[in-house]
Design brief:
With about 500 residues, the chain is of the alpha/beta class. Among the domains are: about 1-40; about 50-160, no CATH class. It is built from 21 helices and 14 strands. Helix 11 links the parallel strand 4 (about 190-195) and strand 5 (about 215-220). Helix 7 (about 100-110) crosses helix 8 (about 115-135), helix 14 (about 305-310) runs parallel beside helix 15 and helix 18 packs parallel to helix 20 (about 465-475). The chain is globular, with a radius of gyration of 27 Å. Residues about 325-330 and about 500-505 have low confidence and may be disordered. InterPro entries: LRR_dom_sf. This is F-box domain-containing protein.
Length: about 500
Amino acid sequence: MSQLNKDILFLLFEEFHNDSKSLFSCLLVNRLWCETVIPILWRNPWSYGIIYQNKSYLFAIIAFYLPISIKEFLISQGINFPSISYQSLLFDYLSFCRSININIINSIILIGSSLAHNQFYLQQEFYNILITSCTELKYLDIRSINHQIFYFPKAKACLETLYELKCDTSVDPIYFYGLARICQNIQKLVIINNTIKVNHGIAKLIEAQENLKNFEWIDEFEEDYFIEDPYKETLLALEKKADVLNHLKIYFQYTEGIEHTLPYEVLSKLYKLKTLIIEDFDYFTKEQLVYQYIEVLRVDYITFNAASNIIENSGRHLREILLFKYWDHYYYYDFGDNFNEDSLNFIHKICEHCPSIEYLTLAFPPTKEHFTEFEKLLKVCQNLKSLILIILNIDERENSEKIMENGAELLKALIRSAPINLREIKFFDYFKFSLQALEEFLKKWRNRPALSLFTTDHIYNNEQEYIRLINKYKDNGVIKDFRFVSSIYWTFYYKKLINDNLYLN
């Protein structure tokens, strides 16, 4: 029975593997709980929201595993170890570890010494002991690495089980050549591009992988000048992984002067994609892309026709369609010359091909025909959980009375036809709700699950009548959250939404 209890506890605690606060609390309940939680906490001890350079106990635990001869040498160099480093431990902590994060380990090492040469010695010994002790390494973050860990005695046995690698392009290519020789079963590769110099080791590492399912490329640099195309080599290497690649996220910050046709040529060949996320890459206009397995589509700049084509050929698997990130009154989004017709066709395609959609961005004008089709979509897409709505009249400028009428019509459509799963709606500020229409809507929403509402219109944040109304329906449970999000902050919120819901497999 005790073993059964421990197994059940383990399954329960696994559900909280991302909630360090709750897991840390469980350590204090009793010995059984402590013994069950420790392996979960130590699977990836670098992932918690704590200040690691202040956590001397982590330094002491890792130092405990160092051989006496190594400690004596380090002490002779002026490094002091806490007394716990010489005592016995309650658990073999590092045996549970499946992750190494170079950045965080380097910050912990600062506890041992402020001298650069001492830190170098500690890094080498700490990396080595982790490589030796982590018998099934799954996650490795090598940003800021200074040692060729693939030459350590037990590196091959440790690294050949690697599932996920995170790195940056400032790392010397020799590290990637070394890893490519050992690690050929990486399934998730995250590249932070933080230098204008092209790193030729990245492509070699990609080519060496036999089962690369998940790839991310994120630009993070201030310069905007490259001697050569920073993406070409990587894209061509990815093209060779078309038979296995399922998830792709790319954020290309620098697009001037590169071969614009190449990304589309490569994308057209990645036929097994389930997730496609493209941030800030010009306008996505190609209409010949076919992804029969696509489940998640998130593209900042895309035409209706390109999006509709992907939807039509999606195999009815789409769960998320998040588009038009930069639509607010500080940005002009070009919806094309046929906004009315194209947006209507976009809604039709979703109704026809996306029965399982959960997260959706819609942009359309406030015509009677569009509201009718929008209501049909709500009735068809019964799994819909979250809506981002952009409703505007491109053809003519409407007065405030007409804008209020459009808002009232939208709320009526939601009350009549919104699926029971709908929990979240984000409104942009090109249409408004009168106080009366909003209260009528909230009254009729009373018997549904609590609703989270987000808006870029300051009226709900500034005018007392709206504030009182919103607080009233917060108090009685109709509104779960009503948040004003400034237009400047909106894009950051959007990116957080993307990262929070990011694919895991």
